[in-house]
Specification:
Blueprint (H helix, E strand, L loop, with lengths): L1 E12 L2 E13 L4 E5 L6 H8 L7 E6 L2 E2 L5 H11 E4 L11 H7 L8 H14 L15 H13 L5 E5 L7 H14 L4 E6 L2 H7 L2 E6 L2 E5 L14 E2 L9 H11 L8 H23 L1 H14 L7 E3 L1 H10 L16 H7 E3 L2 H8 L22 E6 L2 E6 L5 H12 L6 E3 L11 E6 L7 E6 L7 H7 L4 H12 L15 H4 L3 E5 L5 E4 L4 E4 L4 H9 L2 E11 L11 E4 L1 H13 L1 H8 L14
Parallel strand pairs: 3-8, 3-9, 5-11, 6-7, 7-8, 16-23, 18-22
Antiparallel strand pairs: 1-2, 1-4, 4-5, 9-10, 12-13, 14-15, 14-19, 17-22, 18-23, 19-22, 20-21
Helix pairs in contact: 3-4, 3-5, 4-5, 5-6
Bound molecules: adenosine-5'-diphosphate and magnesium ion.
């Protein structure tokens, strides 16, 4: 039994207060088909969302089988929605380019069920709604009624005790509406179905009970379920079991896996925008994590900001192209071409970032009303070395892995060995999210901060770079690996104090200084392999020093800093300024047609 007790809910938007539910009480039987009728704006959707845990009530109580939800945590609501509730909406919320089967399986993604069982359950659910023979169709090849049946299958695949449907036939003509209603009636045989509709005829014909709402109040109920509260035990406070993998956990995992700020490759931003965010949005509709999404929206945006790059691809239209170019079932014997790479290139656009920037910085640009901050990044890679008595190691970009890079290409580029990255320009974006464990935040461009993970770890790569582990050990491992020898994993796990990191120093070299003008050849020559030259350069380089150790605090759901050693944004500006003053850059700008490294014309 589900008891709605004296629930009130108001929405506040700016100055405006809107009372959506005004002291609503309602007891629902475990097995009935309830239709909620009422005019637009009467609070139907709000009531349904409160019942489903998609939205929170302000006061009152929702009592589920005798258990009060007053003290429910986010995790309890997650679990309630995952195990107990299925949702169906007016707009079907299917993913257009995935098959019907994949759409239904998706609802089981976070349930922790194995692949084979997932598939079987999805097939069963689709068979139940009469679509067992259309598993591999895409939603855009189906009628509205069929799509709604897919949505119902998706809601049923978790075998929920309660099915909630918000105007499920709102977008359908009367014939298809009847099919969907027949299905819901069937579904209601062994569970509670609550359906919002503004069609009184359908309600009369199919529902076993009709509740009318007006201005946030119940004005009629043709089959009330009266419960003598005094005979019931007082509602208990208990928390639900864990969802097998809570949505929060799975989302956090994905964020961590994709966490590379700049230099994010096309693939990871693709995964970020389609895979994770896309799935999160769909799940937020089907499994009801709206409130949760809302809560972390701001913090997550700091992790997944809206980014504009020089070249970009319109993903939405790419997907459209991919979906529309799929050949339908009647394809004959011939093999058809599917455009992929050509559509990719035709969708790739160049952005005029210079104009965009002057617009963003102009008076009439309203962006600051909506954005917390605007950050610019310049793809600057500081050349950082560690000086160790009479030896120097280049730690950024990390030279130890250059060889692996050549051998393993793309895979190696995903290895977490670049430990240096930049702090955002505005510290308001991250300072609240992090606690200082030791030392302080950088106070000048040459001070660095170490970011450790939530479980107090830093990578071995970082330890090698800082000289806390012997870097020749790393070189040996890479050498052995490359030579096909067995590499022994170092079994002992290093442990360090926060204070061990404070005062660690590096040297930064202006990359232009690595090139020397060769008078004879009239070219700039790279001196990287000249050890004496480089040693001198590194010794005279700019000293950078770690002054603080920080960690994301427990309250913030998403932290925007990479783990590793971070330098102030001002350092990037300094590098750009230094570069512009260097001879080699001046020479190149003076004669833009001839390459200063080769003496050849670019157009040759
Ligand atoms: P119905 O589903 O019956 O059309 P709703 O439950 O959606 O009604 O809305 C009830 C009232 O609450 C309406 O006046 C609506 O404008 C208001 N309302 C609903 N959702 C929001 C929201 N997110 N923010 C502000 N007001 C809202
Ligand atoms: Mg509504």
């Amino acid at each position: 039994m589900l008891q709605v007790k004296n629930i009130r809910k108001k929405y506040v938007t700016g100055e405006l207060e809107q009372i959506a539910l005004n002291d609503v009480s309602l007891n629902l039987r475990d097995n009935e088909f309830v239709a909620i009728l009422g005019q637009s704006g009467s609070g139907k959707t709000t009531l349904l969302n409160v019942i489903g845990g998609l939205d929170r009530y302000d006061s009152g109580d929702l009592i589920i089988n005798g258990i009060s939800t007053k003290n429910y945590s986010d995790r309890d609501w997650d679990s309630y929605r995952n195990h107990t509730i299925g949702f169906v909406f007016q707009s079907y919320n299917l993913i257009p380019h995935q098959t019907v089967l994949a759409n239904v399986e998706l609802a089981l993604t976070i349930s922790g069920i194995s692949g084979a069982e997932k598939r079987q359950r999805a097939i069963d659910a689709l068979t139940q709604v009469g679509l067992g023979n259309q598993l591999h169709k895409k939603p855009n090849q189906m009628s509205g009624g069929q799509m709604q049946r897919v949505a119902i299958a998706r809601a049923l695949v978790n075998n929920p005790d309660i099915l909630l449907a918000d105007e499920p036939t709102g977008a359908l003509d009367s014939d298809t509406s009847i099919q969907v209603m027949d299905l819901l009636k069937e579904v209601a045989k062994d569970r509670l179905v609550v359906m919002v509709t503004h069609n009184p005829e359908l309600a009369e014909q199919y529902a076993t009970r009709i509740v009318r709402l007006s201005d946030g109040k119940i004005v009629d109920d043709n089959d009330p379920f009266l419960v003598d509260d005094s005979k019931l035990a007082p509602p208990k406070h208990a928390n639900m079991g864990k969802a097998s993998m809570s949505f929060l956990t799975s989302l956090a995992l994905s964020f961590n896996n994709l966490r590379t700020k700049k230099g994010r490759t096309f693939l990871t931003s693709f995964a970020g925008s389609i895979g994770i965010i896309g799935i999160a949005l769909i799940l937020s509709l089907s499994n009801g994590v709206n409130t949760y999404i809302h809560n972390i929206e701001e913090e997550t945006l700091s992790e997944y900001p809206v980014t504009v790059q020089t070249t970009d691809v319109d993903l939405a239209s790419m997907i459209q192209v991919a979906a529309s170019s799929s050949v339908d079932e009647e394809a004959g014997e011939e093999v058809n071409e599917r455009k992929t790479i050509s559509s990719f290139f035709s969708q790739a656009k160049k952005n005029d970032l210079k104009s965009l920037r002057s617009y963003l910085e102009s008076e009439e640009c309203p962006v600051y009303d909506y954005a917390n901050a605007i950050e610019y990044s310049y793809l600057v890679t500081p050349q950082i070395y560690r000086l160790d008595k009479e030896e120097y190691y280049q730690v950024n970009p990390n030279k130890s892995f250059a060889e692996l890079n050549r051998t393993y290409g793309a895979m190696a580029s995903r290895m977490p060995y670049n430990i240096f990255s930049s702090l955002p320009e505005s510290d308001s974006l991250y300072k609240d999210q992090y606690d200082v464990l030791e030392g302080h935040w950088p106070e000048n461009p040459h001070q660095l901060v170490l970011v450790v993970s939530q479980d107090n770890c830093i990578t071995d790569v970082a330890l090698y770079a800082m000289g806390l582990k012997d870097p020749s050990e790393l070189d040996q491992m890479i050498q052995d690996y490359r030579d096909g020898k067995e590499v022994e994993e170092v079994s002992e796990i290093g442990k360090y104090k926060y204070s061990d990191f404070i005062g660690k120093q590096f040297k930064m070299v202006n990359i232009a200084d690595r090139y020397q003008f060769d008078l004879k050849r009239k070219l700039y020559v790279d001196k990287e392999d000249d050890e004496k030259y480089m040693m001198n350069l590194v010794k005279n380089g700019q000293t950078l020093e770690i002054v603080g150790v920080v960690k994301k605090n427990a309250d913030s759901k998403a932290g925007m800093l990479s783990h590793g050693v971070l330098y102030p944004f001002e350092l990037e500006k300094e590098i750009i300024l230094d570069a512009s003053k260097s001879d080699i850059v001046k020479a190149q700008i003076k004669d833009p047609d001839v390459d200063v490294f080769t003496g050849k014309r670019f157009d040759d």
